[in-house]
Amino acid sequence: RPDHLSAYGYRKVRTPHLDDLAKDGVLFERAQVQAPLPSVSHASIFTSLYPPRQGVRAVTRSPTLSRKAVTLAEVLHDTGYSTAAIVASAPLAAGSGLEKGFDLYDFSNPGGRSAFFGMRQAIMAKLLSRLQILPEAQAFRRAPEQTDRALAWLASQGEAPFFLWVHYFHAHDPYAPGWRAMKRDLHPGTSWLD
Predict the structure, then answer these.
(1) CA–CA separation, 96 vs 87, rounded Å?
(2) I need a labelling partner for 158 at 20 to 30 A (CA). Which of 29, 47, 84, 128 fits?
(3) Beta carbons of 86 and 155 less than 8 angstroms apart
(4) How many Å apart are CA 101 and CA 48, to the nearest integer?
(5) How far apart are CA 117 and CA 144, in angstroms?
(6) 133-191 pLDDT per residue, tens
(7) How far is CA 46 from CA 40, 49, 69, 75, 145, in A?
């Protein structure tokens, strides 16, 4: 959260890599999503339209972009950019219209994994994974694989302009650090249960 990052003024915890990113990039003071669903929010991000205008309203009900909606990838592709999307999770799989304009829309549902949606199911999936009962239970590609795929695509590009969207899903994953980190690196005012 911004109230616990030094780039936003918090001084009790050091976040040097995020501070460097904030210093060299753009630091947003206020950001809002159009809906608490990835497909709806990403459709609004890539079209600059509110959900009623862009067409995507849910993952299963009204899951496709309006035919009139133009995506950022389409605009960039039409002006000569190479475009690629490396997508981690099923709610953003091809078929919604988000893939419009991308030369490469890289998504494959990880085989042998179950889709866990919602906090209760995500916690259960994490528990099953931690106990090694059902490892890698969640239906999304892990960050290292996403990064490797993105870097491979970048390496294949020449000097021409490009647009690359790399979608990670780990932010949705309940996070539990290792015991050593939990003993020494807790934020002030929190317990390991937090």
Answers:
(1) 13
(2) 47
(3) no
(4) 15
(5) 21
(6) 655 555 678 889 999 999 999 999 989 999 999 998 876 655 555 666 656 655 555 55
(7) 10, 8, 9, 10, 24
pTM of structure: 0.70
* Alpha-carbon gap, residue 162 to 101, rounded angstroms: 12
CA distance linking residue 98 with residue 95, whole number of Å = 8
What is the residue type of 70?
V
Nearest to 166 by CA among 187, 145, 193, 139: 145
Dist. CA 40–CA 50, nearest whole Å: 9
Report the distance separating Cα 30 and Cα 119, nearest Å: 25
- How many whole angstroms from its chain centre is CA 38? 8
What is the 8-class DSSP label of residue 111?
A: T
Alpha helices, DSSP H, located in the chain: 16-24, 38-47, 51-54, 72-78, 119-130, 143-155, 179-184
Task: Compute the average pLDDT of residues 91-118.
Answer: 78
Q: How far apart are CA 78 and CA 128, in angstroms?
A: 46
Reported as a pLDDT band with limits 50, 70 and 90, residue 81 is: very high
Instruction: In whole angstroms, give the CA distance from residue 161 to residue 75.
Output: 13
